[in-house]
Amino acid sequence: RLSYLPHHAKADLFTQYAKPWPERTVGALLTGSLNPEHYPLRCRVAELIQAGKINAEILPHPGTRLAGSDTCLRQEIEYAKALGDARCSIVCSSKWRYGLAKYVESAMAGCLVIGDTHADADNDCPGPVVTIDKWMSDKLLAAAVNHVVEQSAEPDGLLEHLSWNACHWTRQQRDVGCYAEKLTSLMRQYIE
Prior knowledge:
This protein is an alpha/beta fold. Helices cover 46% and strands 11% of the residues. The chain has 7 helices and 5 strands; from the N terminus they run αβαβαβαββααα. The protein has helices spanning 11-16, 40-50, 69-84, 101-108, 138-152, 158-173, 176-191, and strands spanning 26-31, 57-59, 86-91, 112-115, 130-131. α4 packs across α6. The radius of gyration is 17 Å and the shape is globular. The two termini are 13 Å apart.
């Protein structure tokens, strides 16, 4: 028997640092490892940002070998603050089209999620609000992201409402407390 639990995140952490939409100073943020073997779309977007073709910022990945739990906690807080200051978060599903935690974390932080559709999106798991994909030309990819970022600056606009709808849903359905409850329930089913 196989059961699947998608990624969850700490809703209280991302809620704590989520600024109101008008106070957010970053139009779009790209986060995560820039390993082209595993994250080809993310790396392509990063190259377009670095070339000045996409109006977004890159938060460098801290690496996977952090020096202790205090360093991990500081990094987690800085990540939540960075997302909480961005109107849009650019995410990708990796070469495996997997619903990575960035989809959930970005939505919990109140970001409009821009990314490719992952295989888990039909599995009661949040997907992107605005879809981009690896098949788009660089010109179309840049135009799509830049258009969304420009539109996200509109006060009290549709994109703000879409992001907050996704934010509320993920905070209720993908908090780590929900994960624990679902895991406990699945374990009971296996035992019985």
